[in-house]
Amino acid sequence: MSDSPNELPTEQQIMNGRILEQLELVIDPELGIDIVNLGLVYQVEYREQNIAYILMTLTTPACPLADIIFDEVDKAVKLLEEVDEVELELSFYPPWQPDRMSRYAKIALGFPG
């Protein structure tokens, strides 16, 4: 969050956190785990003019449900009244690996913690 324990988080940091919380509502339809715990979200940034920028990946470039996931990302983030537009960027660098998953996701999917 902030660099110093005495510093309060900025409005942008608070909004970044709220965007990330909304992304936890987006469940990967194949795996049944949210995209944040799966490690698919690389960056979120609340920008001027009420834009939420999201840099994310998919577990595979050939994900057949990509459009559904992207649509759910858009809907979830736009539930925040401060967000009018979602700018979604897809990247496969670095490529997704199972070690990007949270401990919760690893346990839920049967990976060694």
TrEMBL record:
Q: Which InterPro entries match?
A: Fe-S_Maturation_MIP18, FSCA_dom_sf, MIP18-like
> Which Pfam families is this protein grouped with?
FeS_assembly_P
Q: Report the residue ranges that make up the MIP18 family-like domain in this protein.
A: 18-87
Q: What is this protein called?
A: DUF59 domain-containing protein
